[in-house]
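2024-03-11 09:14:02 INFO queue: dequeued item DNA-binding transcriptional MocR family regulator, len=364
2024-03-11 09:14:02 INFO validating residues
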Amino acid sequence: MTAEQLISFARGAPSLDIVDVEGLKAAAVRAFDADPAGVTAYGTSVGYLPLRKWIAEKHGVQADQVLVTNGSLQADAFLFEHLVRPGDAVVVERPTYDRTLLNLQRMGSELHGISVQPDGLDTAELRKLLESGVRPRLAHVIPNYQNPAGMTLSLEKRRELLDLAAEYEFIIFEDDPYADIRFRGEALPSMLSLDTRNVVVHASSFTKTVCPGVRVGYLVGSADLIADIAKNATSLYISPGMVSQAIVHQFCVSGDIDRSIETVRAALGERARVLAESLRRHLPQARFVEPDGGYFLWVEFPEDVLVDRLAPAAAERGVAVVKGSDFVLDGGRHALRLAFSAVTVDRIDEGVRRLAEAVEAVRS
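2024-03-11 09:14:37 INFO prediction written
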């Protein structure tokens, strides 16, 4: 199977046609011209200071509440390392991002998966868990266009989650890299912006709005928390990559990022719509919630379709998918995550048609 023949719904990354390569090249030249000393030096462990300030203004916080990292996964890792000890209870969504699960399992935390509904995390289920005596250190939540399920946490549930965190004294880790990639409905306020009791730590990334290759993410929290994590960051790497962060800063202050977001929104909105139409046409037995933004759509099949058999059958037909079982502590045997971000519109229907062939093959 050649790369041209393969249709991959596996990777959560944008296709090259929606990356502003020319804008990034121009931003790189401006970064080196404007601040050659800052771009080429070690820098500080909290990241490139002008970008740190820009992020702080975007979120309405002080600059000392922001740590800029090499991608948001590193922001996650810094926070987990700082807050979570072996045996600590941690709440995660069910399903949730597979790398988050792996990292928390590796740290020896006691994981509690809470179901995701069409309007996000099941807060009633979480309340029952808390009332049973479980006292989590942390609740990891992806509120917008969740990876992998594509759901969005409703405003009512955001407020309820904040109340639960204050009442039961745990941190909400708002992992929010997809927020700007909204192509339907109204934007909801972040839990960070609604937080009056200092229970939220927020992470995001420029991977989805600029491109994955820049590897620039960030963490927003209390100044004390950020200062403590910055000390660990200094020991780990002295500073993150100043070149990429300075390029991102120039891309942001020029307004190129706003144009980039519009391009990505328009393209992914069309891809999500076409994917949903193709699923309804070729796989009417599949259940899914059409996302309002982001990169992913979660598909659930009837019980006679096992994804352990479906994924290799799809691969034989030139379609790459990710098994639902990768995103949960247990279960997910009849579900797939489909990433529509990297598949152009002219290839989506053919990809779903091949997937439907694979479903028929494993059912018979």
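2024-03-11 09:14:37 INFO annotate: The chain is about 45% helix and 15% strand.
2024-03-11 09:14:38 INFO item closed
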